[in-house]
Amino acid sequence: MLALATGATVTALAGCTSDGNGSSGDTVDPDEWDDVDTIVLEGSRQHWVGVSPAAIEDESNPTLGLVAGRTYELTWENVDGQAHNLEIRDGSGTILEETDYVNDEGETTSVTFEATEEMDTYVCAPHPGSMVGAIDVFTE
C-alpha cells in the first residue's frame, strides 16, 4: 500500500485550468499509479494534457502520482508549435528536473528522474500561468 509522503503537499497554482475530471490540484489514487514508470503528456500554450497512464488520459494539467525512490520517464509532445519546456519544481519553485525546450509541432522530449518527496509541481517556464500541474509523491 502506498501513502502520501510526509510533508508533501498538493498545490493548485493560480491560472491552472480544470476540466472537472481530476485535473491539477486533485489528490490522486495511489493504487492507479502503483505500476506506472512512464508518463506521457501533450503540451500547448493552453495547458498540459495527459496521454498516459490511463489515470490522466485527456485531463488538463493532471495531477501526477509518483512513488518516492522510483525512476520515471516523462515524455511530452509539442502540439502547437510554440516554445515549451517542462520543469519539475519543489514547493519553493526550485527546479529539480527539466527537459530541453521544444519548438516544433510534433517534436517530443523526455526526462528520466528519480522521484523525491520534494517534488511539488511541473510547469512550462514560458507559460507558467496555464501549463502547470501538481505532483503527489507517495512512499511505499
Secondary structure elements and pairings:
Layout: E1 3-4, H1 30-33, E2 38-44, E3 47-52, E4 64-67, E5 71-78, E6 87-90, E7 95-98, E8 108-114, E9 119-123, E10 132-139
Parallel strand pairs: 2-5, 4-10
Antiparallel strand pairs: 1-10, 2-3, 5-8, 6-7, 6-9, 9-10
Outline the structure in words.
With 140 residues, the chain is mostly beta strands. It has a single domain (3-139), classed as Cupredoxins -  blue copper proteins (Immunoglobulin-like, Sandwich), CATH 2.60.40. The chain contains one helix and ten strands, in the order βαβββββββββ. The chain has one helix at 30-33, and strands spanning 3-4, 38-44, 47-52, 64-67, 71-78, 87-90, 95-98, 108-114, 119-123, 132-139. Strands 1, 4, 6, 7, 9 and 10 form a six-stranded mixed β-sheet that branches. A four-stranded mixed β-sheet has the order 3-2-5-8, with no helix packed on it. The longest helix has 4 residues, at 30-33. The radius of gyration is 13 Å and the shape is globular. The protein starts with a strand and ends with a strand.
Annotation keywords:
140 residues, mainly beta, Immunoglobulin-like, 4-stranded mixed sheet, 1 helix, 10 strands
Question: What's this entry about, in short?
Answer:
With about 140 residues, the chain is mostly beta strands. It is built from 1 helix and 10 strands; from the N terminus they run βαβββββββββ.
